[in-house]
Amino acid sequence: MSPDTTNLPADTNLLPANKEAVTPDKELLPADTVPLPADKTILLPDKIFLSGSNPLVPLATLSGLQSDFEQKMLASNLGGRISTAIKNEARAALTDALRREGIYVQGASLSLSMLLSSGYSAASQNRAQTQLLKPSILKILNEGIGQLTLRVSSVANARSYQVQVQVGNGVWQDAGVFPQARRMVVMNLTPGTMYYIRVRAIGGSTGYSQWSDVNGARSL
Q1: Which of 40, 110, 119, 196 is the most exposed place for a label (fewest CB within 10 A)?
Q2: 137-218 CATH fold
Q3: pTM, whole model, 2 decimals?
């Protein structure tokens, strides 16, 4: 029998007798709900079910969509527009199911620990800019005529490193952008010339770090 709501105010919420209305302290977003790469294997959370509620998409359905996408992805490696279109359709179906499951997990989770128990992870809502740290030139080696090899301290969140050189009191000149900090070979140098060198990291949310302290070395 349905409860009599005739005399209840319009904004009254009806809750089961054994439940309490709880408002999460902060919004919890499952990291797995972002769009998926077109040619990547997708790993599903270990477990989706939260105690006391039912997911929007059963785990068996998610597993089936995952297997279907992986099979279509392998088939598309042989080439052909039809197999590629079929793969994209399977990917879209799996992506949609994961998004809907993420919405369920976010809504059913009343705490961070409950969200993490579902197999999903929480996405940070912090959008503050992070300044890259200033790199340090650890070593400069002479490994060939007209070149110097640098080893620089690695900087977190850096995508690459920019090197500039200077001769005497002249202007700084670009000497290249390098993907790794542990080995940067600066070439086309004049043998016997003293070069001053500085490096900065590229990446992060601010674009560049500060320039490193200047080091000097003579090219062979």
Answers
A1: 40
A2: Immunoglobulin-like (2.60.40)
A3: 0.45
If we measure between CA atoms, which residue out of 161, 158, 162, 140 comes closest to residue 150? 140
- The domain limits of the chain are 31-117, 137-218
- How many Å apart are CA 130 and CA 158, to the nearest integer? 11
What single letter denotes the amino acid at residue 47?
K
Place of tokens 């900087």: 155
Q: Which residues contact 97 (CB under 8 A, 6 or more apart)?
A: 57, 61, 62, 65
Closest CA to 19 of 148, 101, 105, 108: 108
Strand ranges in 26-167 using DSSP code E only, listed in sequence order: 137-144, 147-152, 158-166
Give Cα 56 to chain centroid, integer Å. Answer: 26
Q: What is the pLDDT of residues 64-118, one digit of tens each?
A: 888 888 888 888 777 778 888 888 898 888 888 877 777 766 666 556 676 666 6
Cα–Cα distance between 53 and 105 in angstroms, integer? 10
Residue 73, number of CB atoms within 10 A of its CB: 21
